[in-house]
Automatic annotation (TrEMBL):
InterPro entries in the cross-refs: aa-tRNA-synth_I_CS (IPR001412), Anticodon_Met (IPR041872), Met-tRNA_synth (IPR014758), Met-tRNA_synth_2 (IPR023457), Methionyl/Leucyl_tRNA_Synth (IPR015413), MetRS_core (IPR033911), Rossmann-like_a/b/a_fold (IPR014729), tRNAsynth_Ia_anticodon-bd (IPR009080)
Keywords: Aminoacyl-tRNA synthetase, ATP-binding, Cytoplasm, Ligase, Nucleotide-binding, Protein biosynthesis
Protein's UniProt name: Methionine--tRNA ligase
Subcellular location: Cytoplasm
Domain Methionyl/Leucyl tRNA synthetase positions: 7-363
Function comment: Is required not only for elongation of protein synthesis but also for the initiation of all mRNA translation through initiator tRNA(fMet) aminoacylation.
Classification via CDD domains: Anticodon_Ia_Met (cd07957), MetRS_core (cd00814)
Region described as Disordered: 494-518
Amino acid sequence: MAREKFYITTAISYPNGSPHIGHAYELIATDALARFQRCDGKDVLFLTGTDEHGIKMLQTARKEGISARELADRNTPKFQRMAQALNASNDDFIRTTEERHHIASQAIWKAMAARGDIYLGSYSGWYSVRDEAYYGEEETRVGEEGVRYGPQGTPVEWVEEESYFFKLSAYQDKLLALYETSPDFIGPAERRNEIVSFVRQGLRDLSISRTTFDWGVPVPGDEKHVMYVWVDALTNYITAAGYPDEKSEKWRYWPADAHIIGKDITRFHSIYWPAFLMSAGIDLPKRIFGHGFLFNRGEKMSKSVGNVIDPFALVEHYGLDQVRYFLLREVPFGQDGSYSHDAIVNRTNADLANDLGNLAQRSLSMIAKNCGGQVPARGVPAEADEKILRQALDALATARQAMARQAIHTALAAVFEVVAESNRYFAGQEPWALKKTDPARMETVLYTTAEAIRRIAILCQPFIPASAAKLLDLLAVPAEKRQFTDIGMEGALEPGAPLPPPQPVFPRYVAEDGAAEA
Ligand code: ME8
């Protein structure tokens, strides 16, 4: 039977600088969502990439005295390296300068034009030749000699240029009907409400080409125009699914199951994108999820992490799974969040080093010492044993529901509730005391604890993949038995199976000067 497909994307980042913590946050969260579905048996396509055209790239390139292409070629590899450094499991990395993307952008343009939704008009506004950008009147000011200046301090003049327009106004009712009939199309709910009231106020047609610069995808049939920003950028999601070749084996992934983006670009994704797709006769994505913004609480992170915005430095300093866990657990996905040195250290020391790490270390060391380094005998399970294992199974159901609506923090909270419960179980059963009084019962308790850790580790894979894999290795769980379908008794540890020597998985964060923190 063919596996169910799941297609998920991040936004494509502007490579006009180095990647920052916001880019890292979005990629980590999307990675967790993608990995979750893979563990759940789906055939996943996970896409990320860079948005290399447009005015921002040109402006930065000009400041640095290089071409936009040189700038893209210099910075995009940093985004690719970041994806590796974050252990992102993306299946593809798209650059909008690639030929496949030019082909797709021109194809969707032609489809929208064939529908009669693109017309030639003129665009006017306060234009800065130096910035190659238009500004709204409110962004400009008039200087002493009557010269008007833009926000970058460069002179602006009133310019009218030929531009192609997309008939967005014709889609107002169709979009409102979409939001009505597919209430899950936009998440979270606050964002949906904002979009609905914005669209109700009426939509204006959209200028979608420029003649003042040529860094972009040429408009088919009128090559003095290049596509301006959103047609080109949004189309990346279908380019990677093989568009316009609907016979491509990748086309089965479309429509996307979720586009994960920041709240600042929710409008473009939930208004322009479905309108373009309706116009071109292409199916709509199932969900647009606008996550919140991440802010540094303004505290100094630590002596050695100078630039805390740099995701590479953050990972280097705290450890990758520590950063992943912190970002996914601490900030309710969808809301804004902040990060600071103390918050990262407290959260990861408490949950990872103390709760999960100590539980694994203590129980596995006892097994190594007292059970000949083998999975202990299961014995006759008591009610408490069955309860803790059942709870791990229930956490999967909770996590599934939460991940389906991108409530990543809720899924993780459910998993770590099992960790806390397993600690209480282990402490309450006192296997060290049973060693003398009832060694058979000790084995059952150690078996149950190890089995609970196996289930927890399987559930942790989407969030902290490397550490979860280490835990599963310590339990000698074969690679092909780490899916969610293996979580129940059918996949349980087999008594007598040999185990490798235990090793700590989550080091405790210790400050540079050696003082233990939190
Ligand atoms: O917007 N916290 O690119 P971009 C969380 N190329 N997320 C943040 C953030 C922060 N502090 N800062 C930015 C673009 N982001 C376009 C997208 S998609 C067809 C085109 C998020 O590099 C931001 O919301 O400015 C966006 O989702 C992503 O990072 C890339 O932002």
